[in-house]
Write a structure and sequence with these properties.
single chain, 365 residues, mainly alpha, A middle domain of Talin 1, two-stranded antiparallel sheet
């Protein structure tokens, strides 16, 4: 590894950390100025900011005659957001969850995730369907902002974590910090991906493997950095709000805008409808029992998410190479690993539900 490559890796990492810190500080300050909760800031402002690179890539691909790239961009980003980004953040520090997220935001994410494969069944997301996605997104954002003004915490709200007091910046300064943070995150991720790709090429790794691992993970580094730094700063609602909101924005905004600007809409590979989109829906749905059990995403649950991300990448590599081990790997995953996870989380959810039912009557005694 040359000295220049090491320098680019260090510079990219520094920009990622600095960009995440700047984005979290700017988003938190903007939320306080506008009277928004950290969760709503994560669901809206920060989610939009971290989805901006995906939007730029997808719209650029559409205008250059390759709108189909938007599908892989959106689906892959959403799978990575939940399994890798949220998993990493919660392993660093368990993430507390507000009841609004359980009642409203995660179910909305699941519905958006389920809607995309339905719209794609005919092999295309049309301009009209893209407009529908945009309208639904605007309704969701408007509803989140309205709910922020009228929300009354219930007895099951986790204890709010207080961030540092406002620093006295105006909203324009906070907005500037958000924009600067996004730029730093994008440039830092670009530098790290470029340096890592050079290292992988030098040791003989194929372009396919580099694309499925280094590049796919590298494009999620901004979200990872933002979520981890938000968790470390005590802005854990902002961290999970960023993940959930980013998934919704990826479908509603990125896919919606790309379908509207693309002539004839966005073509969808049926292979994505049969495999990648169902995985995206399953990953989104898997978040429901996790956030329901105790309103906290524990380190154990986060570790399961990270393990599944490794399994997902391994599947992609085996499938791309048409490896002989793929059938056995798929059978083990389908008939053993996934059922055990589903049963475990179902039992945990039922136990938590019973605990809550027995807790509420005692409150009135």
């Amino acid at each position: 590894m040359s000295a220049a490559t090491v320098l680019w890796l260090l510079l990219g990492f520094t920009l990622l950390v600095g960009g995440g810190e700047t984005l979290v500080r700017g988003g938190s300050g903007l939320g306080r100025t506008l009277g928004l909760s950290p969760l709503v800031v994560g669901l809206t402002v920060v989610a939009f900011a971290t989805s901006a690179p995906e939007l730029a890539v997808s719209v650029g691909a559409s205008l250059s005659g390759a709108p189909g790239l938007a599908v892989g961009n959106v689906v892959g980003s959403n799978i990575t957001n939940v399994l890798l980004v949220l998993g990493t953040a919660a392993v660093v520090l368990p993430v507390a969850v507000r009841s609004q997220l359980v009642r409203v935001d995660v179910p909305v994410m699941v519905l958006f995730s389920a809607l995309l494969p339905v719209l794609s069944l005919d092999g295309n997301v049309s301009r009209a369907e893209g407009a529908v996605l945009l309208v639904l997104l605007l309704g969701y954002v408007g509803g989140s902002l309205w709910k922020n003004r009228t929300e009354v915490p219930d007895e099951w709200e986790p204890e709010a974590e207080q961030g540092p007091p406002p620093a006295g910046r105006g909203w324009l300064a906070d907005l500037g910090m958000v924009a600067a943070g996004v730029v730093m995150l994008v440039v830092g991720a670009h530098l790290m991906v470029g340096a890592a790709t050079r290292v992988a090429t030098a040791v003989g790794v194929s372009d396919l493997v580099i694309g499925l691992t280094v590049v796919s993970i590298g494009t999620s580094l901004p979200e990872v950095a933002t979520a981890v730094i938000a968790a470390l700063r005590g802005e854990r609602e902002l961290a999970i709000g960023n993940v959930v909101g980013s998934c919704v924005f990826n479908i509603g905004l990125v896919m919606g805008v790309t379908a509207v600007v693309a002539r004839g809409g966005v073509p969808v590979d049926l292979a994505a409808v049969r495999f990648d989109m169902p995985v995206m829906v399953a990953v989104a749905a898997a978040l429901l029992p996790v956030v329901f059990t105790g309103f906290v995403i524990t380190r154990v649950e986060a570790a399961v998410f990270l393990a599944y991300y490794v399994v997902y990448v391994a599947y992609l590599l085996l499938d791309a190479a048409d490896h002989d081990a793929l059938p056995a790997f798929s059978a083990t995953l389908l008939w053993f690993v996934i059922p055990i996870t589903v049963v475990t989380w179902t039992l945990l959810s039922l136990h938590q539900f019973r605990v809550r039912r027995s807790y509420r009557p005692s409150k009135g005694k």
